[in-house]
Amino acid sequence: MWQSVVNGQTLKFHLAGINNQNFIMRDEETGSWWQQITGEAIQGKYRGQKLENVPMDEVTFAVFKRENPDGRVLRPDPKIAAENKYETADWEKEVAKMPVRIDGKLDDALEPRALVVGIIAGGKAKAYPVSALEKQNPIIDTVGGKEIVVILGADRKSVRAFEREADGRELEFFVKPDTGEITDAETASVWDFSGTAVGGPLKGKELKKIAVLKDYWFDWKTYHPDTQLYTLGSR
Amino acid sequence: MTGRFGNKTAWLILLLLTAATVAIVFVPVWLIQPFAAQSARQVEISYIFKSWSPVLTILFAIAALALAVFIAKNAKRWYRALPLVVPLLIIAVFTWFARQNHFEWMFAPLESAKFARVAETDFVKDDEMVLAVRVNGEAVAYPVLQMAYHHVVADVVGGMPITATY
Questions:
Q1: What are the pLDDT digits (tens) for A13-29?
Q2: Which residue, of B53, B73, B100, is where some domain finishes?
């Protein structure tokens, strides 16, 4: 998710190519090429320039609805919908069959198309396999000197990450397996999935959100070559 | 005006122009195709070819047309000029293709994005994933199902022009 304005000019982007399985965007105004995942111009007038990131969440519609009752939702294009082109299930199955080819060596720490949750904290990138998060939720960690927590939502699909500090203290979180309630060990305050304390001594406090990106491991690794990879029990 | 040598030379140049037109359009299509690996150099070559092909194909097409007229005028029988159709047609097709974005044939862009209020949204299921942003108090959801097709959607959220990508 990127801000469209560069040097005071609003750019209009188009799908224009593929670079190691991540797409290239071309802006109408200067014809520069931009890498979708990094927001960096790789060719043309703006080469080297980075788009400003807009913090984004990848959550279920139920979570969005609950948190943003006054929000708006992108409608499907009726023409595309009529041609059934949005039905991606089969398309993704086909894609999964294609071998992963990238310029450089594939990292063998994880299956290339394994889904990971990528975050950047304190300038350091780290990837959390979704499979690890499904087994251990939440994951408490330290990345780039920041104390963080990665939480899988009650819907088992939505993922969020926060700096786990409130009221000047570091918190350890756990999710009650039966109710899915998020609680901190220090004050036993109850937190909701948006990172707000809704009960207990810390009620009203908010955790600072960290942007997460759900991505294939090979894609995240290609564009964040120095990334760390979380493995269960490694902390 | 000219003998056979002139005609042969004209044909040779015409075929070279045809090959050059095909190459300048086809090379970037080949290099930046999906499911292939791309080096930084290959991406750069693709960019240079893509940038120049709209102009160069027109110039090649004009030159090819001039050569074709020259060859046809010198043809002793009208049907001897017929084979000219082949290179001219190839050049015409590739000149046209240099102006197309074939990635948008596969994934049509969303020209004017339309939105619904959360309360009136009946086209997204509760367990479907959405990309959610909130800027200056305005919240917008972009369903992954649609984003996985369009890939790029321009919007203004909370007064800020943004580009949603997936």
A1: 999 998 888 889 999 99
A2: B100
